[in-house]
Amino acid sequence: MSETWADRRNDDQPEQDVREEPQLEAVSEAVREQHAAGDIDIPNDVDVLEGEAGPTRRQLAIVVAKFNGEITTKLLASALDAIDEIGIDRDRLTVVPVPGAFELPLAAMALAKTRRYGCVVALGCVIRGETPHFEYVAGEAASGLQLAALETGIPVAFGVLTVENASQAEERVGKGAEAVRTALEMADLFQQLRQTAAAQA
């Protein structure tokens, strides 16, 4: 097995000698492989509840940041393409523009609390700059959107790009469609859980 950057960190070598670009690239590739899309093997002798990203009778909300609008416009287009492909009528959709990624959680929370929407999709783009601003905004957006879902019980999908540069963002605008499918899958799962609980009551 080839030696990794993490293995070399355990050697008694100076810090500047171990942070070589090839090793960092290898680690980045390994991380990408760990987070690759896939499926799981579930034995046939267990009950399975799994959501499906299909049409819904509930309303769907998309909150989209206006900051980095050239990217978020494409994220929104990707999301709308997925909605059309799935077969959801546009009249079931509400789009809510907000100033930036930092405002996404507040809007998502407000929408979820109305109970009008079966799920909420948050779309934004945060590009790293030369200050720590990137970490603060990206971190607060992620934790805030998760909190909105946990506090309301309404699925909130994370469609926020956190990238190094604009070209990386351009390559990932399909995240909009992915976020829509995630939100719908979770909404369907929650509906199944409610129906199962009601049937067993």
Structural description of this entry:
This protein has 201 residues and is of the alpha/beta class. The longest helix is centred in the C-terminal third of the chain and has 26 residues, at 175-200. It has a domain at 59-197: 3-Layer(aba) Sandwich (Rossmann fold), CATH 3.40.50.960. The protein has helices spanning 5-9, 15-18, 21-34, 69-86, 104-113, 133-152, 166-171, 175-200, and strands spanning 59-65, 93-98, 117-127, 156-163. The protein is globular and about 55 Å long.
Give keywords.
alpha/beta; Rossmann fold; 201 residues; single chain; disordered N terminus; 4 strands
The outline comes out as globular
Number of strands: 4
Q: Order of SSEs, N→C?
A: HHHEHEHEHEHH
Q: Superfamily at the CATH H level of the domain at 59-197?
A: Lumazine/riboflavin synthase
- The whole-angstrom Rg is 20 Å
- Tally the helices: 8
* Main pleated sheet: 4 strands, parallel
- What is the annotated CATH architecture of the domain at 59-197? 3-Layer(aba) Sandwich
CATH topology of the domain at 59-197: Rossmann fold
Distance between the termini: 55 Å
Percent helix: 40-55%
* Structural class by secondary-structure content: alpha/beta
Low-pLDDT stretches are: 1-35
